[in-house]
Amino acid sequence: MPPALRMRLRRLTAPSCVQRPLQPEIQPGRSLSREDVEGLKRLLEVRDGWIQHYQNRELELGWERVSAAAYVGSMLGKLRRRIAGQLRSLSG
Questions:
Q1: Alpha-carbon gap, residue 11 to 9, rounded angstroms
Q2: Residues 38, 26 contacting (CB under 8 angstroms)
Q3: b/e string for 65-89 if b means 16 or more Cβ within 10 A?
Q4: CA–CA gap between residue 43 and residue 49 (Å, rounded)
Q5: Which of 1, 3, 23, 69 has the fewest CB atoms within 10 Å, i.e. is most exposed?
Q6: Is residue 61 classed as helix, strand or coil in its secondary structure?
Q7: Which residues contact 47 (CB under 8 A, 6 or more apart)?
């Protein structure tokens, strides 16, 4: 397996982050303070950043899947040719 593919597979198994929950003060019927609104905006920015990150990862992984499939197909082709050559030499 190529080292670059091995490294990418290792990154896939890295732990993911858990998003911070809303503050307990954020409840229905309660008026939001300026600090509450700023905190919510920060949480939304973090959430949006993670969404963008995972969308980018999905695109990267799509290309990596194509690359890995091509690599496996290439290796299978080489293996088939090698086996066929050995069979020909045994029967000939």
A1: 5
A2: no
A3: eeebeeeeeeeeeeeeeeeeeeeee
A4: 10
A5: 3
A6: helix
A7: 19
Contact (CB, 8 A) for 33 and 20:
no
Q: Give the length of the chain.
A: 92
Give the C-alpha separation, 23 to 32, whole Å: 12
Whole-angstrom Cα distance, residue 81 to residue 87?
A: 10
How far is Cα 8 from Cα 13, in angstroms, rounded to an integer? Answer: 9
Burial of 29 (0-12, 13-18, 19+ CB in 10 A): exposed
Q: Which of 13, 11, 17, 15 is nearest to 50 (CA)?
A: 17
> What would the two tokens of residue 92 be?
């000939």
pTM over 0.90: no
